[in-house]
Write a structure and sequence with these properties.
364 residues, Rossmann fold, L-2-Hydroxyisocaproate Dehydrogenase, Chain A, domain 2, 2 domains, 11 helices, binds nicotinamide-adenine-dinucleotide, binds (2S)-2-hydroxybutanedioic acid, Lactate/malate_DH_C, L-malate dehydrogenase (NAD+) activity, tricarboxylic acid cycle, NAD, EC 1.1.1.37
Length: 364
């Protein structure tokens, strides 16, 4: 039996987590032989609800769950963690402008970055789900100067999965028969779902199987605004599909994407001319616990314009929170680029992995 790994989930009493936690506990993220200790983090006002969720986890009697602890602050909740699923965020409320939302969340992610920097395992992998995910991820990373920027990701896997699912439906093929789809840029309506490098059933170019007008005028805006479409029909934002995407992202990052192209919001190293230092979604392959950007894809004029537009939006978001970003402290951080320190699979940075049984008294 492997040693348990510690996974923190913030916003653990919210909608996405109500799906995500049970999938992690069932072994769907890190495999059926990987025990987990769940460190659930919420705001103080949501601790009662969180206790109810933890009771349900207990009632599932998951064999892989070797511990559950509940926390109302990240400095306790992130202690010794190997994985951080950062779902909790301030939602947009009435009268709130985009800049207000950026600023409100900047405070949350700045604190969480400091906590990761101080108390997480040195090889931690952190995924930001809470919106605006890319810029929250930038704030998080900049507040954790002792961790590499490549240890942080913003979630664009839901957009990637949507791009596969909707294309598969159009072509009448299973989404798993399509590879090479990618989503560039921001998790926002400026994102660019790119089908120019996608293959169907191994050898047919997806772009040749669809009508250009449908691609540009129907498919692209549909992917870009799918979140709003779900809210319109369901009355709530996507939750189960977001949880599945978070799970897929972390699974592939940790265990590999098996040769398949996936989209991840990662620190830009300047590839494809994208400004360095923003979290931008690129096509990547994952192996041995790290990711590599796929290089040398031909980008046509349309694609270049789309990629610039979403880059521009991220630069504007960055400018809006710039006054809250600590300056880069070490030139070496930049050099760390995408050469992930989190490629190691051994977790040995002095954490207590002694819990080999479920401790009900940890639900407190
Ligand atoms: N990146 C994506 O693809 C994607 C997809 C769907 C949703 N989202 C975003 O994910 C976030 C969560 O969605 P949800 O439907 O679960 O929302 P929700 O409102 O149901 O749950 C959010 C939870 O976060 C908690 N929270 C707020 N601030 C916190 C903090 N500082 N620390 C810990 N917990 C905190 C709240 O108490 C709440 O329980 C939202 O920002 C949403 O927009 C992103
Ligand atoms: O669009 C939203 O507000 C929710 C989420 O980011 C989504 O893409 O479903």
């Amino acid at each position: 039996m492997k040693q348990p790994v510690r996974i923190a989930v913030t916003g653990a009493a919210g909608n996405i987590s109500y799906s995500l936690l049970f999938k992690i506990a069932a072994g769907e993220m890190l495999g059926p032989d990987q025990p987990v200790i769940l460190q659930l983090v919420e705001i103080p006002q949501a601790m009662d609800k969180l206790r109810g969720v933890a009771m349900e986890l207990e009632d599932c009697a998951f064999p892989l769950v070797h511990g559950i602890s509940l926390h109302d602050n990240p400095f306790d909740g992130f202690r010794g963690i190997h994985y951080a699923m950062l779902v909790g965020a301030r939602p947009r409320s009435k009268g709130m402008e985009r800049a207000d939302l950026l600023e409100a969340n900047a405070v949350i992610f700045a604190e969480q970055g400091k906590a990761l920097n101080e108390v997480a395992n040195r090889d931690v992998k952190a995924l930001v789900v809470g919106n605006p995910a890319n810029t929250n991820c930038l704030i998080l990373s900049r507040n954790a100067p002792n961790l590499a920027p490549s240890q942080f990701c913003a979630m664009t896997r839901l957009d990637h999965n949507r791009a596969l699912g909707i294309l598969g439906n159009k072509l009448g093929v299973n989404p798993s028969d399509i590879d090479g789809v990618c989503v560039w840029g921001n998790h926002s309506p400026t994102m660019y779902p790119d089908l120019h490098h996608a293959q169907v059933l191994g050898d047919e170019a997806a772009i040749d199987m669809i009508d250009e007008k449908w691609y540009k005028d129907e498919y692209t805006p549909r992917i870009q605004k799918r979140g709003a479409e779900i809210i319109e029909w369901r009355g709530l934002s996507s939750a189960a599909s977001a949880a599945q995407a978070a799970l897929d992202h972390m699974h592939d990052w940790a265990l590999g994407s098996d040769g398949r192209v996936v989209s991840m919001g990662i620190i830009s190293d300047g590839s494809y001319g994208v400004a360095k230092g923003i979290y931008y979604s690129f096509p990547v392959l994952c192996e041995f616990g790290s990711y590599q950007i796929i290089q040398n894809l031909h980008i046509n004029d349309y694609g270049q314009a789309m990629m610039k537009k979403t880059e521009q939006e991220l630069l504007e978001e960055k400018a809006a929170v710039d006054h809250l970003l600590p300056k880069e402290t070490a030139a070496s951080r930049e050099e760390l680029g995408t050469s992930s320190r989190s490629g190691q699979t051994e977790f040995d940075a002095g954490i207590d992995t002694g819990e080999s049984y479920y401790k009900a008294d940890r639900i407190c």
